[in-house]
Automatic annotation (TrEMBL):
Lineage of the organism: Bacteria, Bacillati, Bacillota, Bacilli, Bacillales
Keyword match Transport: yes
Protein's recorded name: Spore germination protein YndE
Gene Ontology annotations of biological process type: spore germination
Subcellular location: Membrane
Transmembrane segments: 12-30, 42-63, 84-108, 114-134, 146-164, 184-207, 219-240, 269-292, 304-321, 341-360
Chief location: membrane
Tagged with keyword Transport: yes
InterPro entries given in the database record: Spore_GerAB
NCBIfam families xref list: 2A0309
Amino acid sequence: MKRYQFNEITTMQYIFLISGTQIGIGILSLPAQLADIANTDGWIAIVIGWIISIIASTIIIKTMEKHQQDTIFDLSRRYFGRTFGTFIHIAFVAYALLASITVVFTAIHITQVWILPNTPNYLIMMLFMLPGFFITKNGVRILGRYAEVVFYLTLWMPILIAVPLQKGTILHMLPMLKEGWAPIIQAVKTTVLSFLGFELAFVFYPFLKEKKHAVKAMVIANSISALTFLLITITCFIFFSPDETPLLIWPTLSLLKTIEFPFIERFEVIFLSFYLFVMSTTGIPYIFTTVFGISQLIGKKDHTIVLLVAVCIFIFTSFLYNPSFFHVQTLGSWWEKYGLWGAYFFPIGLFIYTSIARWFQRGKKK
């Protein structure tokens, strides 16, 4: 009998769960970051980052295929023993917690700046945590269904962002490789960090119903994210000048301010209201991973109590802490540094180690 038989997700839900986790806060600032490093050639770095993310996510799947009913929390103790396995377990939980804090407080900061400037952050936190609690409480199956609904609900958003293309000029993109390959290679680090989210396959893979499609699903999920990043980045590069884009804090939101309709005065407010759903598909999976990992650590099968405590801590913290833009940037940089190791270097090392360990085990049996 399958370990998670009653909480399985379909391949489509798995795809939307991974891509939803990736398309979060990164697309708001990615064009400016790439333009600052590689000018308008930054879009090439997205393509390279897409290839690297596919390789890294495939390595994760190949590692998990060896024990299809285990999460990273099970694998860590299976291969590294009680002490060092527990350390890896705690490190992965800490990574998910840092990602959760970053996404939640970034969402609050953006909401206060662009939509509700006079609303206390603890009220916004409560509004975020209430639906998040019920979605996370019901497990991965509900997470998958929610990610699928949000994907279809917000499918129009990237398409609408492309509207300003008609007012831009393609000459901003020319010539290609204007500064050579060095800036592009340097910008690849920024793009690979924008693809963070696929590493949660370490947790969600055992819940996938048809595991034979796991690699294909990861390729599709990364491709959806890459197409979204490319569309928004190229639109910003074409609409804004190469000198203007790096100076914008949130270029994607600045782009939305140029979209005008006779019946809507501030379209960016409407867009952001829907975009909060997209951000929730990034934050909620990391929150689930955090509470699920803590529950596994303390030997609890049900993560509801841990989730309730976590939600209360988030709300209590929001009474004492109101993040500034500098704090949001600092949290993001910490997440990126941690994520570079957790999503790219750690899977490679784990794959090599588990392969060698299994080879030795087969040798002993012979």
